[in-house]
Amino acid sequence: MDEFAVGVLSNVGMISFLALSAYLLLVAGEISFGQQGFFAIGAYGAGIGTALWGWPLGVALAWGAATAAVAAALVGALTLRLRGMYFAVATLAFAEAVRIAFELTRYQIEIDGEPVGPDGIDGFRGIRHVLEHDIGPVQYLALIYALLAATLVLFLWVERTRIGRVLRMIGEDPTLAAMQGVDIARAKLAAATAAGALAGLGGGLYAHLTTYVEPRNFDVMLGVHSLAYGLIGGLGTAFGPLLGVAIDIGLLESTRWFSGYRMIVFGGLVAVLLILRPRGLLDERLVHRLRSAWPFGVHAAH
Amino acid sequence: MLHIDGLGVHFDGVRALDGVDLTLAAGEALGLIGPNGSGKTTLFDTICGLIGPDSGRVLFDGRDIVGEPAHAIARRGIARTFQGVRLFERMTALENVRCARPEPGVTRSEAEQLLERVGIRQFADALAEDLPLAARRRLELARVLARRPRLLLLDEPAGAMNQAETIEMAQLLRLVHAGGCAMIVVEHRIELVAEICPRVLALDCGRVVAEGSLDAVLADARVRSAYLGAAG
Asked: Rounded mean pLDDT of B143-161?
């Protein structure tokens, strides 16, 4: 596989975690402009784990996801009682606060004669675990997609269980969901925590692929894109946000056809879809039709 | 089972409920009538925990449930329908019934039996938003029955239905009531109230103005005045 294709596919895979993170909250009825904050926490957390503390990659990725999950739970506990745009604004403010906090953070250790670790606005260089352990680009790509496949299987399973139904209930009509005995606050907090973990895992993978991260990688545009992926690809299934990522990164960003016009085409696509298909390409109705047409009789779990 | 004592709710200076008292025994069916704006839906909202009252108590099984969150009240065994049918529109009819009781959950076969019971088994795999109105009302009923409620609050269960559909709904509700479920029925279709509720309570401007048998309540001058104005 050529290097360019490996790079594009790696990007698609990593950003898919962020897209799934935003999608999870969208399904639960919340619009977050701040998932890039948890992506950043995961990137820095996992990077520190391998580069400064010498942890194995798997442990560091889990650490990055866990710190992002804890941060998401704390932010969620404070903000999920806010309604509509107030929650969206609060998440945006949080992500910007995280970005600025990393601009102010210096935590470096001298390793082999050179300082390694977050260096404020100059970023975090030397996350070289993948290079030092002779993990090739294709191997790393395989790791990303193995984790993504596992995540997707988990999503598809959860969507067919009681938890998945609860998320869709609170996303569609929280009052009606409460009337069915659903503790809305608890369910939303759980969704926010899981979404934070997903973004953190994506961030950890990102840091180890690029070997260098800086705070401005995690600006508001990353958050806007992650939100838009679900809205483009569709909210009827976890494949929706992945379709959104594939369209944006796989098609618009990585081909020459839209060179220089990516943001115009992307923005236009979002606007058109919000008017014509407000729940995205793979919306609930289409997914329902596809399931009905599926010849092997897939039904929700008992 | 349900004892409401001096319940008061006001919105921006308007008293939606003004010292409402109400008692309902286990398994009893009570009709709740009154003109639009008399406070019927507000009373349901308050019992369910969607609105916090300014005064008064709502005792369910002897426990004051005022201040409890809506989901906790629902878990006590109170279920309701809404004046405008409220369903999870992007889910199928079957899924709507299955999500009625998130813990421990409604099995597929149980949900199918409930759809059969309310006569819409054929719509099981249709999206709720695609169902005709009468089927939507029945689906809403199937969903609340799946909760196995001890108290059912029905807000205009025959709203916008034709005569034949109303009769069918009345028969269904009579069966539900015969199963031992207590219910309060808000309904403008007097024939449906007469079919199910031996006792009726009339509200006007947030106050109880009459209580007793349907005939007695309809004959009450205050009720006639409330419905027909000064001319009544």
From this structure: 89
pLDDT tens digits, one per residue of B124-135: 999 999 999 889
- Rounded to a whole number of angstroms, the distance from the CA of A178 to the nearest CA of chain B is 5
- B166 burial class (0-12, 13-18, 19+ CB within 10 angstroms)? buried
What is this structure's pTM?
0.89
Which strand ranges, in their side-by-side order, compose the sheet holding A124-125? A109-111, A114-118, A124-125
Q: How confident is the model at residue B230 (pLDDT cuts 50, 70, 90)?
A: very low
Q: Give the closest of A168, A178, A292 to B70, CB-based.
A: A178
A209 φψ region: left (φ > 0), alpha (ψ -120 to 50), beta (else): alpha
Q: Which residue has the tokens 């820095």?
A: A44
Phi-psi label, residue B15: left if phi above 0, alpha if psi -120 to 50, beta otherwise: beta
The pLDDT value recorded for residue B140 is: 93
Q: Do B86 and A168 touch (CB under 8 A)?
A: no
Domain ranges of chain A: 3-218
Chain A interface disruption, residue of B45, B71, B98, B127, most A CBs within 10 A: B71
Question: What ranges do the domains of chain B cover?
Answer: 2-77+151-231, 87-148
Q: State the 10-residue block means of pLDDT for chain A, 302 residues long.
A: 86 94 94 94 96 94 97 91 84 94 92 88 91 91 96 92 90 94 93 96 95 93 92 92 89 72 82 88 90 66 42
- CATH code 3.40.50.300 for B2-77+151-231: yes
Contact between B75 and A181 using a beta-carbon 8 Å cutoff: yes
Q: Which two tokens stand for residue B125?
A: 């795999």
β-pairing, B55-60 vs B2-11, is: antiparallel
Answer yes or no: is pLDDT of B105 > 60: yes
Closest-CA residue to B71 (of B58, B82, B80): B80
Give the other-Cβ count within 10 Å of A7's Cβ: 14
Residues of A with CB under 8 A from a CB of B: 162, 165-166, 168-169, 172-173, 175-176, 178-184, 279, 284-285, 288, 292, 299-300, 302
Angle at A187 between CA A185 and CA A188, to 5 degrees: 65
A217 CB contacts (<8 Å, ≥6 apart)?
A: A40, A43, A206
Q: Which helix (H) or strand (E) holds A210?
A: helix A184-210
